[in-house]
Amino acid sequence: MPKILIVGGGYAGFYTAWKLEKWLRPGEAEVTVVDPLPYMTYQPFLPEVAAGSIEPRHAIVPLRRHLKKTAIVAAKVTGIDHASKTATITPNIGEPYEFAYDQIVVTAGSVSRTFPIPGVADEAIGLKTIEEAVAIRDRILTNMDKAAGLPAGPERDRLLTVVVVGGGFAGIEIFAELRSFVSGLLKQYPEIKFEDTHFHLIEAMGRIMPEVSLPTSLWVIKNLAERGAEIHLDTQLKSAVGGVIELSTGESFESDTIIWTAGVMASPMLKGTDLPIEERGRLQVRPDLRVGTADEIVADAWGAGDVSAVPDLSGGGVGGFCVPNAQHAVRQGRLMAKNIVADLRGEKLVEYNHKNQGAVAGLGLGVGAFQSGKIAVKGLPAWFMHRGYHGLAMPTWERKYRVIWNWVLNFLLGRDIASLEARVTPRAAFEAFASRPRPAADAPAPAPTEPAPAAKKPAAKRAPAKKAPEKSLPSPEGAPVVVGGDPADTK
C-alpha cells in the first residue's frame, strides 16, 4: 500500500488528509500526518479569541477527532531526503527516526517574520497560534486589574497602552478587536476612564489593509480614530527595549502589550530538505501543486499553503504567486487531495486557479469591512458578513456549532472577562504550601572494630555549638566563603 506523508496539520495539511479520507478507496493508500500540535488552528478567529468573543478550544480542530482513518504523529519533520524518499521525524518525546514514504505532501505553514529591532524578540508577541491569542487576552485583563489599583502615573499608563506593529489584515483585526474589548470592559472597571486607555498601530507603509481599496482603508482609519485608537502611517519601530517604544518619528512611550503582525515567512524546516526552494525561502510548486518548476517536475512531492510559492493563474497574486492566506490554503488542500488520488489512479491532474472572492474583516463588535472588486460594505452589515463567512468556513459541523453557539451566548450573557494568566505557572500555589520531608539527621559514627593500642583520656563532651550567623570572608583566592551556614550555601 503506498504511504503518503503529510508534513504539517494546518489548513492545507488538514484539508488534504480530510479529503483523502473521503476520496481514497479502502486499501488504496496509507496516510500519515506529522505535526507537533494535535490540532489545526483556524487563524481568522485568533483576533476574536484574543478579544474574548470565542472560546479558545472552539477555534481549533482536533486532528484525532476528525481524521479517523489517518495516522497522527505528534512530532516535527526535521529533514527530508526525497532522493531516498525518507523523512527524519523528531517526536515530542524520544529519539529521531527515519520514516519511509512513497509520496510526500509539504504543508508546514509559516512563522512570524521579524526584523532585528532591539527589544522585539524579548518584549513582543506574535499572532500565529491559539496560545498567543490566549496570552494576549489574559495580559489585557490582568493589566486592567493591576491598573485599577494604581494611581495615575507612568506605570498605570504602561499597563493601559497596547501597541500593534503591522497594518495588514491580521494587524488591523487584532487592533480593532482589542480596542472594542477594552472599551466594553470599562463598565466593569469604574476606576479606569476611556481616555486612560491608549492604542497605537505602527505601519511602515503609507496605508493599511492593501487587500481593500484605498477609500475603504481610509474609512477604517477614521472609524478607529473615532473609537480612540491611533494609527501611525509611514512610521517604523526603532526600538522596544524594556517596553519603551521608540518610533522613527521621534515619538516615544511605554507599553506592556506589544503585538507583532508585520508579515510571515515560510517554515524554516525547508532548509533541512533536498526539495527546490525559491529566493524567498518557499517551496517551488507548479500550478497542479506538484513540487517543481515549469521545466522540471519532482515526482511524488506536493506542496501547498503558506510554505509554498503557488503560481496564481488568476493574475491577482503578488509577484505572480498566491498570497499566504486561509482562503487559498483551504482550496489548495482540497485540490491537492483530488490530484493525489488522480495521480495514484493514472488520471489527469487539475491546475489550481482561484480568483479572490474578496476580503472581509471584523473590526470589533458590530463593525466590519468587506471589499470585493469595486463593491465595498462597511459597518454592521459587513460585520454580519464576516461572522457568517467564517462561521461557515470553519471546518466540520461540530466546530461550526460550537463557534456559533459561543456567539449566541455572548450576545445573551456578554463576554467572559476572567483572566487565567496564572495558568502559565499552575503548580505555584501547590508548591507554596506543599509539605516537604525534613532533612535526615546525621548518622552516628560507626564503633571501631579493634581497640586502640594506647587509649588516651577521652576529651570532655562538648555541648552542641549554636549555629553562627552567616557572614562572608574572603578566601585566599579572593572568592567569598560562607562561615557558620550550610556548606551548600557558598556564595
UniProtKB/TrEMBL annotation:
Protein name from the UniProt record: NADH dehydrogenase
Residue intervals of the FAD/NAD(P)-binding domain: 3-333
Low complexity: bias regions: 435-444
Region of interest called Disordered, as start-end residue ranges on this chain: 435-491
Pfam families for this protein: Pyr_redox_2
Single GO molecular function: NADH dehydrogenase activity
UniProt record similarity statement: Belongs to the NADH dehydrogenase family.
Keywords: FAD, Flavoprotein, NAD, Oxidoreductase
Keyword Flavoprotein: yes
InterPro entries: FAD/NAD-bd_sf, FAD/NAD-binding_dom, NDH-2
Record carries keyword NAD: yes
